[in-house]
């Protein structure tokens, strides 16, 4: 699948810990392994901030409380990519400053440099990074696929509505198994 990249978004230790699902990481690992085997670049996206959090406004409801915690800065072990799906040497890790993978990051530069035109989205949470990234990527004219079971959300009904009703308006929606089978051909 030339011109395609798999995005693994916000699968960081503290975020995974807040969304317990014993099957999620092995399933996501299956998508990552399929991408690597097919030569599809895997791009990791993490949320991270400078020490002291000068890049978080107190008006930001999503991240404002995080600034008080001192978390999600370089070296914070809870902010590392979960070791079960960690990047290989040479795989790109993009750090973002807001919910969308594009906000405050160089993701667009990385994708354009690799001539990527189609994104396969995975991550935590469906109603957060996946939704925000999908909307922005669609506006940037990327082709999109969402791996429904490669995404996770604390609210199962919100996940269902997004993957079954909202996302199909702008993306193809598949399971990890369906996509892995297709990418391996």
Automatic annotation (TrEMBL):
Asked if the keyword Oxidoreductase belongs to this entry, the reply reads no
Signal sequence residues: none
Q: Which residues form the Isochorismatase-like domain?
A: 4-178
What InterPro entries is this protein classified in?
Isochorismatase-like_dom (IPR000868), Isochorismatase-like_hydrls (IPR050272), Isochorismatase-like_sf (IPR036380)
Alphabetically, the GO molecular function entries are:
hydrolase activity
Alphabetically sorted, this entry's keywords are:
Hydrolase
Pfam name, any one: Isochorismatase
- What's the domain of life for this entry? Bacteria
| PANTHER family xref list | ISOCHORISMATASE HYDROLASE, PEROXYUREIDOACRYLATE/UREIDOACRYLATE AMIDOHYDROLASE-RELATED
Q: What is this protein called?
A: Cysteine hydrolase
**What high-level taxonomic lineage is stated for the organism?**
Bacteria, Bacillati, Actinomycetota, Actinomycetes, Catenulisporales
